[in-house]
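Let's do one together. I've listed all components of the complex below, 277 residues spread over two lines.
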Amino acid sequence: MTEILLFAIPALLIILGALIVVFAKNPVHNAMGLVLTLTSLAIVYISLNATFVAMVQMLVYAGAVMTLFLFVIMMIGVDKPEQSRKEIKGQTFLISGTLILLVSIIVYIGLENGLNWDLLFPESENAIEGTPSLLASSMFTSWVFPFEVISILLIVATTSALALAYEFKKSESND
Amino acid sequence: MIEVTSDWYLTLSAVLFSIGFLGMMFRKNALIMFMCIELMLNAVNLTFITASKHLGLIDGQIAVFFVLVVAAAEVVVGLAIIVSIFKKQESASVDMLSSSKG
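Okay, and this is what the predicted structure of the assembly comes out as:
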């Protein structure tokens, strides 16, 4: 019973937060909905034995990324409604078509075999606990090349963010 | 007695991805679209962690770290672009960005 509650309550909060992200009018509410989703996801991660990932999720996503989002929302103003209601040709049709497709796939799988996704592998007996030492022992041995590549990506992202900000200042002084 | 299996988590992940996709298609505000991308990335992360538990391998959780870093980098660059666009045309709506189509 505890197990089911530990799944159901965060799951409901995740969906609620996601719906707030999509449908709220005020951008600050959208950001808070995203915080709700990310925090509840961290709880789900803990119940999936991924404790370290849950901590990183809280620190990086709910902490750093959301701060960045709120910072930008505050910077460009929260009181402006979406100005144009003009639609791209056939947009509504395409959206509803794709949405109906996605939902019907989920419902089909749900009804067809009682929420059993036809997983190729049986559930493993080997229970793992996502501790930092276990993660590190794999990341710095077999995953060390992707690790290095991702560090280059971070440097590139930092540099490009700086370059974007700098270019703007220069063009303003020219005006 | 019902047991919580991997299928439940995968269904939750599919629903989360669908909501994120809906928002991505529906909203015109570039910031909200970015948040919806975050939703979709998190749905993928949930799938990775479920797979990691299901298969008893740690590699799924490592993949989550890489997704996390890519998401952070994407947000940094994307928000910098949004801010610099906003400074030019006082709007974060993607409809106003049609001037970049050449």
